[in-house]
Specification:
Radius of gyration: 20 Å
Largest sheet: 8 strands, mixed
Strand content: 25-35%
Helix content: 25-40%
Oligomer: single chain
Number of strands: 15
Structural class: alpha/beta
């Protein structure tokens, strides 16, 4: 296994990113032409892209030049020689100015991760980032929610967009996209990711629906994990408000949904969330793919208000044929 650099919280310079927007878009396009795509990343690490095992350490035999060097740097968090990855000095300068990478002598180190996803590039904190603000690690649930979006949707509201995975994928497909989030760091990552991906979703600061107006063909939310108590010990406390937020989302999503549209919610499927979904949407499909230690299902809910009422729940086991939601 190759040496990895120490992860620290990434401080993005958003004004610099906006000034360098065209250059960042050109760098993103260059990465794509170099083969920086999911299949090649998975091949390099020897594990599926949706598996966080790729961050544990790539085989030492993998090349660290050209595409291999880019993957080692941006996905694996390894220091690489600036002269070997195919980026010129001006391109490295732009990434340094934004805060995505830093120079250490002849080497470049990644301050953030950049991962390819369905034609987009998603920037986020590295998994080993340290510091109180290091909460925007690459989110497998968000990636798989993005992969579950209907391909023909012309508009998307991505609530709690985080680093923007679903918003970016939909925008790459030509949809009109609005993403909301309360966290300014999340919105900064989402905007930088959009610049790298060559798309322009609209990102708004706000809790859930915030100041959003209009209706959308798809309204999506990758909810924070809900509180689940077992024997008095709290589990999955990524957000103590997780269940509350998911229920509030379900109660308000219908007002933002275009006729014939679809609501997608990835969350724990607690009794409260299940009841809120039944209350708001007569057509419901729950894809149940895993369970929390207390038995609470994790699911992707597909919800509609049109057509014949009905509810179904499918249990889809995780495995090579269906890693997480894929």
């Amino acid at each position: 296994m190759a040496e990895r650099s120490t992860g620290t919280t990434c401080a993005l310079d958003l004004p610099a990113a906006r000034r360098l927007g065209e250059r960042l878009g050109a760098i993103g396009a260059k990465l794509g032409r170099a083969g920086f795509v999911e299949a090649r990343v998975a091949q390099w690490f020897g594990v599926p892209l949706v598996s966080d095992a790729r961050y544990v350490g790539a085989p030492a035999a993998r090349p660290r030049r050209g595409l291999g060097g880019l993957i080692a740097l941006l996905v694996g968090g390894e220091p690489v020689d600036a002269a070997t990855v195919g980026l010129d000095g001006a391109e490295v300068d732009a990434l340094v100015a934004v805060g995505l990478v830093a120079r250490e002598g002849a080497m470049i180190i990644a301050r953030a991760s950049v991962v390819p996803l369905l034609g987009a590039l998603v920037a986020a904190d590295r998994l080993d980032a340290t510091g109180a603000d290091a909460v925007l690690s690459p989110d497998v649930s968000a990636w798989n929610l993005a992969a579950s979006l209907p391909t023909g949707a012309r508009s998307l509201l991505d609530v709690g967009t985080g680093s923007g995975a679903a918003a970016l994928v939909a925008a790459r497909r030509g949809a009109t996209v609005v993403g909301t989030d309360l966290d300014p760091r999340a919105l900064a990552f989402a905007e930088v990711s959009a610049l790298l991906s060559g798309v322009a979703p609209r990102f708004l600061a706000g809790d859930l629906f915030g100041e959003v107006v209009g209706r959308f063909e798809v309204v999506a939310f990758n909810a924070p994990l809900a509180r689940a108590d077992m024997a008095g010990q709290p589990l999955y406390l990524a957000s103590p408000r997780g269940e509350e937020l998911a229920i509030a989302f379900l109660d308000g999503a219908g007002a933002r949904l275009a006729p014939g549209g679809e609501v997608l919610l990835h969350s724990q499927l607690t009794e409260g969330i299940d009841a809120a979904a039944a209350r708001a949407f007569p057509r419901r499909l729950a894809i149940h793919f895993a369970d929390a230690p207390d038995g609470t299902p994790h699911a992707l809910l597909s919800l509609r208000s049109d057509g014949r009422p009905g509810a179904a729940r499918l249990r889809v086991p995780l495995g090579p044929a269906c890693p997480h939601l894929r």
